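Quick question, first post here. What does this chain look like in 3D?
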Amino acid sequence: MAALSGKSGLTSGKTSPATQADPPSPEAAEHTAGAEPAAQASKPSATKPPESTPSATWSSVRSVNHPDRYWHISGDFVKLDPIGSASARREATFRVVEGLADASCYSFATADGTYLRHRNFLLRDEPDDGSSLLRQDATFCPRPSSYSGAVMLESVNYPGRFLRHQNFQLKLDPYQAGVLYRADSAFRLVDGLA
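> Answer (accepted):
Ran it through. Tokens below.
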């Protein structure tokens, strides 16, 4: 598997929602004539670790194919929701830190000190129990996305599974080469909403 080069999107600085052009909808892209470039159709692979890891910055995570929706804690789960109220803005803002299981990757902490982690392949908000399993479940490695300024996040303990939204639920799913999967798994870090 050939390594992709380029910045991860998380280390190149935060983007403002107004400064990035949004891609066409996956449905429109599916109906576009012509073959996809081979580089975009191939599975993302591990790249060199980012040259710098994030300092503790407050960020929100915006969907590429639903740019009006952000990662948002809803109960114990993380969903992709439109954000309006002040409390929703707080629940959609995370501290991006060095990965708990791999310092070249990333973990997402909440204001009250819990972490976003996958369990049963669903992304959820849980307290740090100090276990090795939590550290691995809460660590995601940035990989290049086929969308400019976006990143895909691969599970450190389930290589080949990436965070994506499906029915607006954030989950880990095995990589698929389709346009819809690549759009559902592409995210941009933007300034924190809170």
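The longest helix spans residues 132-137.
The radius of gyration is 16 Å.
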